[in-house]
Design brief:
- The chain is an alpha/beta fold.
- The chain contains 14 helices and 10 strands.
- It has a 10-stranded mixed sheet with strand order 7-6-5-4-3-2-1-8-9-10.
- Helix 8 runs parallel beside helix 9, helix 9 packs parallel to helix 14 and helix 10 packs across helix 14.
- The chain starts with a strand and ends with a helix.
- The relative contact order is 0.12.
């Protein structure tokens, strides 16, 4: 019998952050809640979260635990040491850890901790310095570009696994070749490209991708990626990897790619739990781990309403040859590529799939 599994995302510092990124989607979410931020997770809540994980697995199984924010490292290294110690008391639970960070607070002590506990680290880095400095800076408006590159060097030195997370804005989408050049110069092997989302209530967003920009960027970037791969410089890119897996008949690991939502346990620092990182809003709050188990939260009215919400199927979806492969996509992210007139993701698949299908990876 296969081990039980549970996957959760924890926000130990809630929406708190030491940067002021122009496009931050979680800052936008927090501003649309009654309580914008819940501060740093208290030890009582930490203990409850760990106990609930063990309860969900009946004392034996695999827990995949990721930490995000805001900026999760604001909770301090002591918080993470206490979390690891709390989970270790449940001897039947195997843990897999990941953390997404802006990389500005990590030093060698953090890196040693990550290596010792087999963390996978996602570093937010929006490409070359001119783009990075325009979108991501500290509270004083100062550049953090070289601080983050120093962190990457520390992680590499300490043999910590990491990948690079890049938000693709209008500005960056216009220069796919420059982005690839930057990646190659720094020998980055694992990259996630994240389309910039418009604010929840925005009618027109100055940074979010339009369908035209989406198709142009991903098609051009794929061409650059293919050239590098054929030259013997392969690089893992999340979209391309997921599409290749689907061509082989396997499920993608990236949530939302097949157009069906499931409950993802996103735990705020006070124990409030939501079904999706994109929808940590009051109307989707499933409950609090101090009061209910993960199983009970998954059966809550908010969870049922979230799953029942129809996926965004527009006119281009009606007779789309990729409908079974896409299903309309993620209902939050598809605003970047799908409207009543056009589906840019369809254009990307038309370009990418024939080439990917011929690759032997």
């Amino acid at each position: 019998m296969a081990d039980k599994q549970i996957s959760i995302m924890i926000k130990p510092a809630s929406a708190s952050c030491n940067l002021r990124c122009r496009y931050c989607f979680y800052a936008d979410i927090s501003e649309n809640r009654m309580t914008a931020t819940n501060g740093i997770m208290k030890d009582e809540t930490l203990s409850v979260v760990c106990a609930r994980i063990n309860e969900a697995l009946d004392g034996k199984g695999i827990a995949t635990i990721s930490f995000q924010g805001g900026e999760p490292t604001l909770a301090g290294l002591g918080y993470f040491r206490r979390f690891i110690a709390a989970m270790k008391q449940y001897e039947g639970v195997k843990t897999v850890y990941a953390l997404q960070t802006n990389g500005t607070l990590i030093d060698e002590e953090w890196a040693d901790f990550f290596r010792e506990n087999n963390f996978l680290i996602g570093i937010s880095l929006d490409g070359y310095q001119a783009n990075m400095d325009y979108f991501r800076f500290d509270a004083a408006g100062k550049s953090v570009f070289y601080r983050i590159l120093k962190t990457v060097d520390i992680l590499a030195k300490k043999k910590v696994e990491y990948n690079i997370l890049t938000v693709v804005t209008k500005k960056l989408a216009a220069r796919p070749q420059a982005l690839m050049k930057f990646y190659r110069e720094h020998h980055f092997q694992y990259v996630q490209l994240i389309p910039c989302l418009p604010a929840l209530k925005a009618e027109d967003d100055p940074y979010a991708l339009t369908p035209k920009e989406y198709a142009s960027f991903f098609n051009s970037f794929f061409d650059e990626w293919l050239k590098q791969t054929e030259k013997g410089f392969p690089m893992s890119v999340n979209l391309f990897d997921n599409l290749y897996e689907m061509l082989q008949g396997r499920m993608p690991y990236q949530c939302g790619m097949i157009g069906r939502c499931t409950v993802q346990f996103v735990v705020e620092s006070n124990g409030d739990t939501y079904p999706c990182d994109f929808w940590c809003l009051d109307e989707y709050r499933m409950g609090n781990l101090h009061d209910a188990s993960f199983a009970e939260l998954a059966k809550s009215k908010a969870a049922r309403n979230f799953i029942r919400t129809d996926m965004c199927m527009k006119k281009p979806c009606e007779n789309c040859r990729y409908q079974k492969m896409c299903g309309g996509g993620c209902r939050r992210q598809n605003v970047c590529y799908l409207n009543d007139e056009v589906c840019a993701y369809q254009q990307v698949l038309d370009h990418i799939l024939p080439l990917l299908s011929r690759m032997d990876r």
